[in-house]
Amino acid sequence: MVEEYINEMIRKLNEKAASDPKFEQELKGIRKVVQVIVTDGESYNFVLENARVGPMSKGTVANPDITITGATQVYDQLRSGELRPMKAYATRKLLVKGSLEDILRLRKFF
Protein backbone atom coordinates (compact mmCIF):
# COMPACT_ATOMS: atom_id res chain seq x y z
CA MET A 1 0.00 0.00 0.00
CA VAL A 2 2.84 2.44 0.77
CA GLU A 3 4.33 1.88 -2.68
CA GLU A 4 0.96 2.66 -4.29
CA TYR A 5 0.63 5.84 -2.22
CA ILE A 6 4.09 7.09 -3.24
CA ASN A 7 3.41 6.32 -6.91
CA GLU A 8 0.08 8.16 -6.64
CA MET A 9 1.83 11.24 -5.17
CA ILE A 10 4.50 11.11 -7.91
CA ARG A 11 1.79 10.97 -10.58
CA LYS A 12 -0.07 13.93 -9.03
CA LEU A 13 3.07 16.05 -8.77
CA ASN A 14 4.03 15.34 -12.38
CA GLU A 15 0.50 16.15 -13.56
CA LYS A 16 0.48 19.39 -11.57
CA ALA A 17 3.86 20.44 -12.99
CA ALA A 18 2.65 19.67 -16.52
CA SER A 19 -0.56 21.68 -16.11
CA ASP A 20 0.60 24.56 -13.87
CA PRO A 21 3.35 26.70 -15.47
CA LYS A 22 4.01 28.63 -12.24
CA PHE A 23 4.53 25.41 -10.26
CA GLU A 24 6.69 23.96 -13.03
CA GLN A 25 8.84 27.09 -13.09
CA GLU A 26 9.30 26.89 -9.31
CA LEU A 27 10.74 23.37 -9.70
CA LYS A 28 12.87 24.02 -12.81
CA GLY A 29 16.58 23.45 -12.31
CA ILE A 30 16.08 21.69 -8.97
CA ARG A 31 17.45 18.21 -8.36
CA LYS A 32 16.56 16.50 -5.10
CA VAL A 33 16.94 12.88 -4.05
CA VAL A 34 14.14 11.79 -1.72
CA GLN A 35 14.35 8.74 0.54
CA VAL A 36 11.14 7.30 2.00
CA ILE A 37 11.72 4.98 4.94
CA VAL A 38 8.91 2.75 6.14
CA THR A 39 9.95 1.76 9.66
CA ASP A 40 8.11 -1.55 9.47
CA GLY A 41 8.59 -2.25 5.77
CA GLU A 42 10.51 -1.39 2.59
CA SER A 43 12.43 1.77 1.84
CA TYR A 44 11.95 3.68 -1.41
CA ASN A 45 13.63 6.56 -3.22
CA PHE A 46 13.01 8.84 -6.15
CA VAL A 47 14.55 11.88 -7.78
CA LEU A 48 12.91 15.24 -8.47
CA GLU A 49 14.74 16.81 -11.40
CA ASN A 50 13.74 19.57 -13.82
CA ALA A 51 10.17 19.77 -12.50
CA ARG A 52 9.47 16.04 -12.84
CA VAL A 53 9.77 13.08 -10.52
CA GLY A 54 11.33 10.01 -12.05
CA PRO A 55 10.27 6.46 -11.29
CA MET A 56 10.42 5.25 -7.72
CA SER A 57 12.98 2.61 -6.77
CA LYS A 58 13.13 0.26 -3.81
CA GLY A 59 16.01 0.52 -1.39
CA THR A 60 18.08 3.23 0.21
CA VAL A 61 20.45 5.76 -1.31
CA ALA A 62 23.53 7.46 0.08
CA ASN A 63 23.12 11.08 1.16
CA PRO A 64 19.51 11.85 0.18
CA ASP A 65 18.50 15.52 0.21
CA ILE A 66 15.21 14.72 1.96
CA THR A 67 14.33 11.75 4.16
CA ILE A 68 10.74 10.94 5.12
CA THR A 69 10.24 8.31 7.83
CA GLY A 70 7.02 6.75 9.10
CA ALA A 71 5.24 3.49 9.81
CA THR A 72 3.02 1.70 7.28
CA GLN A 73 -0.06 2.72 9.27
CA VAL A 74 0.84 6.42 8.93
CA TYR A 75 1.25 6.18 5.15
CA ASP A 76 -2.05 4.26 4.95
CA GLN A 77 -3.79 7.01 6.98
CA LEU A 78 -2.32 9.66 4.69
CA ARG A 79 -3.53 7.78 1.63
CA SER A 80 -7.07 7.37 3.01
CA GLY A 81 -7.26 11.01 4.11
CA GLU A 82 -7.71 10.01 7.74
CA LEU A 83 -4.48 11.88 8.53
CA ARG A 84 -3.33 15.10 6.87
CA PRO A 85 0.38 15.43 6.01
CA MET A 86 0.96 18.55 8.12
CA LYS A 87 -0.72 16.95 11.14
CA ALA A 88 1.40 13.81 10.69
CA TYR A 89 4.50 16.03 10.62
CA ALA A 90 3.40 18.18 13.57
CA THR A 91 2.62 15.15 15.73
CA ARG A 92 5.91 13.52 14.66
CA LYS A 93 4.17 10.49 13.19
CA LEU A 94 6.00 11.41 10.00
CA LEU A 95 9.59 12.55 10.42
CA VAL A 96 11.12 14.70 7.70
CA LYS A 97 14.82 15.54 7.50
CA GLY A 98 16.15 18.08 5.04
CA SER A 99 16.72 21.80 4.64
CA LEU A 100 13.85 24.10 5.60
CA GLU A 101 13.52 25.16 1.95
CA ASP A 102 13.27 21.52 0.85
CA ILE A 103 10.72 20.70 3.53
CA LEU A 104 8.53 23.64 2.51
CA ARG A 105 8.80 22.59 -1.12
CA LEU A 106 7.95 19.01 -0.16
CA ARG A 107 4.62 20.19 1.30
CA LYS A 108 3.44 20.71 -2.27
CA PHE A 109 4.24 17.08 -3.03
CA PHE A 110 1.62 15.90 -0.53
Describe the protein's architecture and organization.
- The protein contains 5 helices and 6 strands; from the N terminus they run H-H-E-E-E-E-E-H-H-E-H.
- Helices cover 44% and strands 25% of the residues.
- The protein is globular and about 35 Å long.
- The mean pLDDT is 91.
- The two termini are 16 Å apart.
- Helix 1 (2-19) crosses helix 2.
- Strands 1, 2, 3, 4, 5 and 6 form a 6-stranded mixed sheet that branches.
- With 110 residues, the protein is an alpha+beta fold.
- It has one domain: 2-Layer Sandwich (Nonspecific Lipid-transfer Protein, Chain A).
The oligomerization state is single chain
Taking pLDDT < 50 over at least 5 consecutive residues as the criterion, the unreliable ranges are: none
Please name the fourth-level CATH homologous superfamily. SCP2 sterol-binding domain
Give the % helix: 40-55%
> How is the CATH topology named?
Nonspecific Lipid-transfer Protein, Chain A
CATH class category name? Alpha Beta
How much strand? 15-25%
What is the alpha-carbon Rg in Å? 13 Å
Question: What's the SSE pattern?
Answer: HHEEEEEHHEH
Report the count of strand segments. Answer: 6
Q: Domain count, please report it.
A: 1
- Measured between the Cα atoms of the first and last residue, the distance is 16 Å
Query: Quick one: overall form?
Result: globular
* Number of DSSP helical runs: 5
Specify the CATH architecture.
Answer: 2-Layer Sandwich
Largest sheet at a glance? 6 strands, mixed
Give the structural class: alpha+beta
- Mean pLDDT over the full residue set: 91
